[in-house]
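User: two proteins, same treatment. go.

Assistant:
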Amino acid sequence: MKRTPHTAAVLALGAVLMAGISACSTESSAEADKIGVVEKLPTDPDQAKSKENAQEFRSWVNVHGTAQEKDAVGRVQRIIGEWNEKTGNAYISTDINGGKTQVEGPQAAATAIAKAFGDWKDSEQGYASVYDVFGNAMITNYKF
């Protein structure tokens, strides 16, 4: 299956719907499902580095991003993962509270964050996922 922003949006919608079902999970580490979607934010092995990644990302977007991206990336707390010019996975932790009544606003912010990350970093096979304040996936496997 070719991963496109449309595919990512459809997968994210499924993840958001499933998040309500799995919000009480006691799993301590995230694992990918059959198609590679990590529905819960992975454990952060280096919080100092992930906070530094987030600060570098916010700084870049403040110079190069759109108004919507600048507003959205203010919600980014940490960026976990590793990436380079060939491959990588980024797990973006935010303070977005998705909730069930305000899907459009939080989802639009998550999409803007994923798009801005794709503009910031470019890989042949890199994917970014955005997670809400509870560690539930909002956008998964956005290609960057």
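Protein 2:
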Amino acid sequence: MKLAVVLVAGLAISLDASAAPRSEIDIKRGVADVVERYANAVSCGGVSIKPEDVLTLSAYQDDGGLALSKYAVLWHGDLGCMEGSGAEMTRLSIATINTGQYVVQPELSSPVAAFDSPVRFVSRGVSSDADALVLEGIEYAPNDPRSAPSIPVRFTLRMDAKGGWRLVDKIRIATTKP
């Protein structure tokens, strides 16, 4: 099964992409588009990603490609079409703009790279920087049914030396915003 995901991922990133635009919203549209195509190639399909789903880790600079831009995109999907009640969850993809093309980096994206989210579904991205994501979601209490987690949390993931995202902080919050 892992081999199939890697082969499909390789096909997804080789799709044609537009040249890198200059405005932030155009960049986020391009990133959302390439990650959506990647997500639909490695999951059961039906993944829809909007520009507002894109978190900037390091912004695109019009410097001839000297500084590598990096964007994180959270999406929900069922990798490998397992179709069980626990198969769909939040995934993380990392995309860059390299030589004017939008590219998903599967080696820095889940499931290849670690994504230690304490929640099954991330509700929203609160903030991001070059090596950290602050996210919100709802965690399961000990007696919660699989379909109804009840504890809202805000948590921080930090990128490790291998490009995985490790949990470094988690707090309970009053509620999550949609």
